[in-house]
C-alpha cells in the first residue's frame, strides 16, 4: 500500500461549469489544502484499488482534479464511501501513482520516457482544465508539443511506450502524432542530405517498435517521399533484431513456443510485404536467410513464392551457400531443400526466356541478363556436386536438378562429370540402368582432355559411357593430327578445331607439346589400325572357308571397339595425363564445347 498523504473529510465539488476566475481561486485553495494535508499527517479517508495495488489517499485532492473519481464518488449511494476500484486504468499502478502525486502537488520529473504514460492516465482520469486550471492534460500536451515531439528519438520512445497504452493512446492521437513526427524528420533530413549521418542511430531506434507500429512508420515515410529502395537497410536491421534468435542452420525444426512462433511468423510476413521492389535493393544472402526463416516458420505460400521469385531475379549474384537451404521437414530424408532450389532455377529460366517481371519496376528491374546465364550454370553445377554426396538423394531427384541446368550455360561438362562421379561414389548400390540414367544428363562430347583421361579409367561409369568418352577423345585427337600433318608448323591453331581446353590461342610451347603428344598418339593409332586390319583379314578368310558363310555387319554400321582397344587407349591417355589416375579430380576451367550427338548413334573407331 502506497501512502501519499493523510485524511481530511471534505464535501466533493458538484458545480463543474465555473468561470475561469473561480477555477483559479479554487486551484489556489486546493494547492494550500493539499500542502496542509501533507504537513499535518492527516489519516487517509479513501482507499483506491488499482489492480493488485491499493493506495491510501484523501478524497479532497483527488476529486478536485480527477473528473473520473469525482463522478464515482458523487454517484455512490454511500455517503461515507471509503474505497473505490479503478481496474482498467492505462499504465496500471505506476501511472496512477504519478497522477496522485500531481493531485498532491508533489514534484516529479516529466520526460520522454513517461510522457505517454502521463498523457494517457490524465485522459482516463479526466484531469482537464474543466476541473482545475493547469491540470495534467494541459500540462502533458504542452510538453508533447514543445519538447517531446520535436526529435526522432523522443518520438520513437513515445511510440514504443504507447504499445502498452492502447486503445487510449490511439484515441487521443498520440500514436499518429508520433508516427508523423518520425516520418517528417526522416524525410526532411533525407532531402537535405543529412540522412546518411543520422541513419545509423535512428534506424536502430526503430527496431524497438512492435511490428505493426514499425510498418506504419515506414508507410508514413514512403507517403512523404522516402525512396523505397532505401528501406532495405532498415528492414535488414529489424529482421536481424527480431529473427536473429531463430536456429535455421541445421536440419529439422526445433521446439519453439507457439505464441513466440506466431509472433515471428507475423514479423517475417510483414517484412516481406515491405521489401523494396527494386532488383538490387537487397543482397541475395539476405533474401536467402528470409526464405529459410519462411520455410522454418511455415509462413503463407505467397510469402515464400515472393522470396523465391526475388532470389531468381538475382541468381547471377548468388553464391553456393545461398542455395544450400537445409531441409526443415521432419519427414524429409535429404539434407537440403532440393525442390525449393529447383523452383528458383526454373523461375530464373522463365525470366531469362520471357522477360516476365511479374510486377517489378521497369526502371530498376529487368530479366536476368545473358551474362548471368553462365554464372548461374556454374553455380547450379556446383550445387549439384555439393548435394551429390547426400546418400538419401534419389536418382530421380539428382536427374531432375541436373536437367534444369541449361546446356548452353555449360561450356564444358567437367563439373557435370564431377557431380556424377561424386553421386556414383556415394551410391555404390545403383543398378546398371540407374547408373546409365544418371550419366545420361552429361554430354560426353563436351568433356575436356583431362576429364576424358579420368573418365576412361573410371570403373564407376557404365561401359557404354566409357566407350563414348574414348571415341570422342580419339576423334578429337585425329582432327589434331590431321591439322598437324597438313600444316607441320602452324603459327596458330585453326579456328575450325574445337580444343575444349581454352578460349585463348595457345602459346608456342603448348603447340610444341601438343605436337609431341600427337606424334605419340599417331604412332599408337597406326599400330592399332594394323592390328585391326589383320583381324579383319582373318575374319574374311574364316568366312570364306565356312560352308554356310558368316553374316557380316553392313558397311554403314561400324564395329564396336573391343576391350583390348579400350584398355590400350586408356593406358595411353593415362600416360599422357598421369594426374588423372585417382578417383577424386579437380576439374579444369570450363571451355567451349560442341553440339551433343544422338545417343543412339554408333560410331566407327577404326
TrEMBL record:
One short Pfam name that applies is NPH3
Q: Where is the NPH3 domain?
A: 200-476
**GO terms (BP aspect):** protein ubiquitination
Superkingdom of the organism of origin: Eukaryota
InterPro entries hit by this protein: BTB/POZ_dom (IPR000210), NPH3/RPT2-like (IPR043454), NPH3_dom (IPR027356), SKP1/BTB/POZ_sf (IPR011333)
* Metabolic or biological pathway, per its Swiss-Prot or TrEMBL entry: Protein modification; protein ubiquitination
**Where in this protein does the record put region Disordered?**
541-561, 580-606
Task: Give start-end positions of Polar residues composition bias.
Answer: 543-553
Keywords noted in UniProt: Ubl conjugation pathway
- Signal peptide stretch: none
The Swiss-Prot or TrEMBL record describes its family as follows:
Belongs to the NPH3 family.
PANTHER family in alphabetical order: OS12G0117600 PROTEIN
- Indicate what this protein is called per its UniProt record: BTB/POZ domain-containing protein
